[in-house]
Design a protein that fits this description.
globular; mainly alpha; binds protoporphyrin IX containing FE; 4 helices
Protein backbone atom coordinates (compact mmCIF):
# COMPACT_ATOMS: atom_id res chain seq x y z
CA UNK A 1 0.00 0.00 0.00
CA UNK A 2 2.99 2.25 -0.49
CA UNK A 3 5.26 4.22 1.80
CA UNK A 4 2.51 6.35 3.36
CA UNK A 5 0.91 3.41 5.21
CA UNK A 6 4.13 1.40 5.74
CA UNK A 7 5.26 0.56 9.28
CA UNK A 8 8.32 -1.43 8.10
CA UNK A 9 7.48 -4.32 10.43
CA UNK A 10 7.05 -7.66 8.69
CA UNK A 11 4.51 -10.17 9.94
CA UNK A 12 4.88 -13.79 8.74
CA UNK A 13 5.15 -13.42 4.92
CA UNK A 14 3.77 -9.87 4.78
CA UNK A 15 6.39 -7.14 4.57
CA UNK A 16 6.01 -3.76 6.26
CA UNK A 17 4.25 -2.22 3.26
CA UNK A 18 1.61 -4.94 2.88
CA UNK A 19 -1.75 -4.95 4.67
CA UNK A 20 -4.72 -7.25 4.77
CA UNK A 21 -7.26 -5.92 2.27
CA UNK A 22 -10.10 -4.86 4.51
CA UNK A 23 -13.58 -6.23 3.72
CA UNK A 24 -15.82 -3.20 3.16
CA UNK A 25 -19.17 -4.78 4.02
CA UNK A 26 -20.61 -3.20 7.15
CA UNK A 27 -18.27 -0.22 6.89
CA UNK A 28 -21.29 2.10 6.63
CA UNK A 29 -22.12 1.26 10.26
CA UNK A 30 -18.75 2.40 11.63
CA UNK A 31 -19.95 5.82 12.82
CA UNK A 32 -23.28 4.43 14.06
CA UNK A 33 -21.51 1.94 16.31
CA UNK A 34 -18.96 4.52 17.47
CA UNK A 35 -19.23 8.21 16.52
CA UNK A 36 -15.45 8.49 16.93
CA UNK A 37 -14.82 5.41 14.77
CA UNK A 38 -11.91 5.64 12.34
CA UNK A 39 -10.53 3.66 9.38
CA UNK A 40 -7.37 1.81 8.23
CA UNK A 41 -5.19 -0.61 10.24
CA UNK A 42 -4.13 2.02 12.77
CA UNK A 43 -7.28 4.15 12.70
CA UNK A 44 -5.52 7.16 11.16
CA UNK A 45 -8.34 8.02 8.71
CA UNK A 46 -11.25 9.96 10.24
CA UNK A 47 -13.40 9.73 7.12
CA UNK A 48 -13.93 7.27 4.28
CA UNK A 49 -12.40 9.72 1.79
CA UNK A 50 -9.32 10.09 4.00
CA UNK A 51 -9.00 6.28 3.95
CA UNK A 52 -9.10 6.30 0.15
CA UNK A 53 -6.51 9.10 -0.01
CA UNK A 54 -4.04 7.00 2.06
CA UNK A 55 -4.08 4.30 -0.66
CA UNK A 56 -0.67 4.02 -2.34
CA UNK A 57 1.50 1.34 -3.93
CA UNK A 58 -0.63 -1.18 -5.84
CA UNK A 59 -3.74 0.81 -4.91
CA UNK A 60 -2.40 4.15 -6.15
CA UNK A 61 -4.19 3.79 -9.51
CA UNK A 62 -7.54 3.44 -7.75
CA UNK A 63 -6.82 6.55 -5.69
CA UNK A 64 -5.84 8.52 -8.80
CA UNK A 65 -9.10 7.51 -10.50
CA UNK A 66 -11.08 8.66 -7.48
CA UNK A 67 -9.20 11.99 -7.51
CA UNK A 68 -9.97 12.43 -11.23
CA UNK A 69 -13.72 11.86 -10.75
CA UNK A 70 -16.20 14.71 -10.88
CA UNK A 71 -17.33 15.64 -7.35
CA UNK A 72 -20.76 14.11 -7.94
CA UNK A 73 -19.14 10.72 -8.64
CA UNK A 74 -16.94 10.97 -5.52
CA UNK A 75 -20.04 11.79 -3.47
CA UNK A 76 -21.81 8.77 -5.02
CA UNK A 77 -18.82 6.53 -4.14
CA UNK A 78 -18.94 7.66 -0.50
CA UNK A 79 -22.73 7.17 -0.44
CA UNK A 80 -22.19 3.63 -1.78
CA UNK A 81 -19.59 2.86 0.91
CA UNK A 82 -21.99 4.20 3.58
CA UNK A 83 -24.71 1.89 2.22
CA UNK A 84 -22.62 -1.25 2.76
C1 LIG B 1 -11.88 3.14 -5.39
C2 LIG B 1 -11.50 1.96 -4.94
C3 LIG B 1 -11.31 1.69 -3.47
C4 LIG B 1 -12.02 2.15 -2.40
C5 LIG B 1 -13.26 3.04 -2.40
C6 LIG B 1 -11.39 1.60 -1.21
C7 LIG B 1 -11.82 1.85 0.07
C8 LIG B 1 -11.16 1.44 1.21
C9 LIG B 1 -11.55 1.80 2.55
C10 LIG B 1 -12.74 2.68 2.93
C11 LIG B 1 -10.65 1.21 3.39
C12 LIG B 1 -10.64 1.28 4.92
C13 LIG B 1 -11.27 0.02 5.45
C14 LIG B 1 -11.34 -0.04 6.97
O1 LIG B 1 -10.71 0.75 7.68
O2 LIG B 1 -12.02 -0.96 7.48
C15 LIG B 1 -9.71 0.48 2.58
C16 LIG B 1 -8.62 -0.23 3.07
C17 LIG B 1 -7.76 -0.96 2.30
N1 LIG B 1 -7.76 -1.06 0.94
FE1 LIG B 1 -9.00 -0.11 -0.31
N2 LIG B 1 -10.31 0.84 -1.59
C18 LIG B 1 -10.21 0.87 -2.94
C19 LIG B 1 -9.24 0.25 -3.72
C20 LIG B 1 -8.26 -0.59 -3.25
C21 LIG B 1 -7.30 -1.30 -4.06
C22 LIG B 1 -7.25 -1.24 -5.59
C23 LIG B 1 -6.52 -2.02 -3.21
C24 LIG B 1 -5.35 -2.95 -3.50
C25 LIG B 1 -4.69 -2.98 -4.66
C26 LIG B 1 -6.95 -1.73 -1.87
C27 LIG B 1 -6.40 -2.26 -0.73
C28 LIG B 1 -6.75 -1.91 0.56
C29 LIG B 1 -6.04 -2.38 1.74
C30 LIG B 1 -4.84 -3.34 1.76
C31 LIG B 1 -6.65 -1.76 2.84
C32 LIG B 1 -6.24 -1.88 4.31
C33 LIG B 1 -5.17 -0.80 4.58
C34 LIG B 1 -4.94 -0.56 6.07
O3 LIG B 1 -5.61 -1.13 6.90
O4 LIG B 1 -4.05 0.27 6.38
N3 LIG B 1 -8.02 -0.86 -1.92
N4 LIG B 1 -10.03 0.63 1.27
Amino acid sequence: MGEGLADHRSEFIANGREWRTAPLWGIGYTKEVNADGTYLHDGRARTLMEAVLWHGGEADGAKQRVLAMPKADRDALIAFLRSL
